[in-house]
Every structure is written in C-alpha cells, then in structure tokens.
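Marked as duplicate of an earlier ticket. Keeping the data here for the record.
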Amino acid sequence: MSLERYIPFRKSDVVSMCQTLLPTEEHASFKEFAELFSSIIHFEYHKRLELLKDNYAPFDPNADTRNLTPLSENDKLACQKRFAQAFSDILNAANFERITDQDLKDALSEESLFKVRLEVAFDDFAEVVFYRRGASQKDETLRTWCGLKKQAIRFTNYERVAVFIRFKDEAYFQHAKKTPLGFEPGSTIIKLFQNVPKADLEMLFPNSEVRMRPIDKVIISASAAVGGAVVLVTKLGTSIILLVALLSYWLGLRSEGVEFSQQHLISLGLGLGVFGSFIFKEWTKFKNRKIKFMKALSDNLYFKNLDNNAGVFHTLVDAAEEEDCKEAIIAYSFLLNAGKPQSADELDSAIESWFEHNYQCSLDFEISDALAKLARFKLVSKQNEGYTALPLKDAKKQLDNLWDNFFQY
C-alpha cells in the first residue's frame, strides 16, 4: 500500500511538535507566526468556499433559497464544470486520493464484511467519482453459523470517503420508466463518510438495493422444501393419493373408479388451507430476512455518514486549510532549524524521517506544495537548489504586511 500524503495530527499539535525543533525563547514567536499564517490561509479558502457554494446552488437538492434569475442549460453546464474542478482541487488540497475504477470494481466483486449483497444501477448516473483518505489495514473477527464459527479477516479501511455523484436528467428516467426514489433527476449529491471498508464501497451509492446472497437463498429454499414436504405428507397425503388415482382413471391408466366423499373434500380443503398458510409464512420469512439486511445496511450508514451535500464543503475546506497550514509550518520550521540552505529532497527526507522516528508515522510529505506556499508568501529565498527560511521576526512582518493589504479600497 502506498504512503498517504495526509498528516494525521491536528494543526495545533503540529505547531507544538515544530516548537520542539526551535530554541525555547522562540516558541512564543513561532506560535504567533503560525497564527498569522493560518489566518491568511483561512481568508484565502473563504473565497474558494464561496465559489463552491455559488456553482453548486443550481444542483443542490437541499436548497431552501430561490434563484434570482432562471439559468439556461448552458449556464448550468458551465456551473457544473466549474464546481467539479473546484471540488476536485479542494479534495486534492485536503490530501484525498481518487478511488480508481478498478477499486470500485473490486468492491463490487468482493464479499461484504456485513454479509449484505448489494446491486447498483450505474446507468442512473451521469458521473461518479469517489475519493478517500487515510487508508490502513485492519483486522476483524466475523461470526458465522449463528456465532458458532469465528473467521479472522484482514481488510483495507478508508478513514474518510467523499462521494460525488451526478444523476442523469429526467428524460432518461422517463425513457427507462423508472421512478427516482430519494433523489431528483439532474441533481448532484455530495456525501462524506468515515471508516468505510474497501469491500463495502458499493453501500455508499444512493440507489443501491439489497439482494439475497446465494447462501441465504439456499437456506430459505432448503427450509421451504423440507417444511413443504412435511406439510404435503401429513396434511395432504391421503387427498393427494385420491387425486392421483382420479387422474389415472381419467387418463385411462386405471380401470377402477374413484369416489370422493364429503369427508375427503373437507380434508382436501383443510389441507390446502394449511399448505397455503405455509407458503405465506415462507414468503413472509423471505421478506423479513431482506428487511433485516436493509436494517443492517441502514444502521451501518447511520454511524458512518459525516455530512451531506453543501455541508460537505465546510468540512472539506476546513480539512484543506489544515493540510496547507501543517505542510507549510512544518517545512518552515525545518528550514529555520537547519540554519543553512536545504534542497527540496533533503528537506523532504528529513521531515519524513522525523515523523517516522519520533511519531511512528510513515507518510509521503508534500514538500513541493509546502515550498510553493512559502515562496508565494515570500517566507523563503532560493539560491540554486537550496532554500533558506526568512528569520522569524521578518517572516511575521511579511505576513502582517500581507494581511494589512488584502483590501486596497
């Protein structure tokens, strides 16, 4: 499994971790630097949040506001493209990785950890994109055969999964003679989940339907066959023999006639009633088992769902802010501590080793993004291939100057 770009520590903890690299007398000044830097990043991301909200508004299925002017189809298409690109950029900044089509195919082919088989109508979607962050290997013990058998399994778990799905328009559903349930044709839904096993990605689709697994069909069929045979023999045995004899007489296979008395007819009627009630009971058992699976799916999603639609933007924008800040603050503290120019490769290796040795955390640090942000704010200088950090006092002045000049009215 490849290393994650995601830094699994809170921003405030990262600042404390970086302070240990610097002399004690610089700790307070470094914290002020981090607060200034975070405020500027937060201001910049506010613009990106507004861009997401504006371009998602025409497709938001939960909107409680009215559009000032109606949008043409071309306007909606332009909004859709801008939104898709902005959403992808935010997820990349938050260090999410796109889940490939092969991963989705693997999820559909693998057996669910929750023993629920799902089917997804992919034709309903115009676009489907899954993103994940925080992949890890986990072990779990499953109980089978009414808890008598234990099975230890190892699976890939995603700590965060973001889902972007755009439905086809109303004309498709009318042509396919489908009635959309729980969504509007042409709408775009955004969802965020936590702790999703790779094998259960299909349960995140909004139109997934529970289907019986082969083993469940075998269990129900075997139970129905045995029970049905018992009912036929005990309740309808005599009547069936008489019916077979009568049918043989009608077909000329039997010369002796058969007479049905009133008692036989009553017995036959009672037997058919018992058999009918047995069939209804088995059908009800089948429906109840399916409802049980649906409840298991619903309960599972209830605890895994973090946010929906426009609410997802705030969570992801906050996550992207955190990642941008953590990357830049870490890189700056290492350059400040080095006291001499460092190449990007040297800095990247030093930071990754620091995380590995001090915090038992293996990650793929985004050194290029970190240095790009520091260079954009003029907090580092570059000579040849080496980077040097601006002294703390000068760095704070530079950030303060940027903050004071955001608006020039």
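See parent ticket for discussion. The first strand starts at residue 97 and ends at 98.
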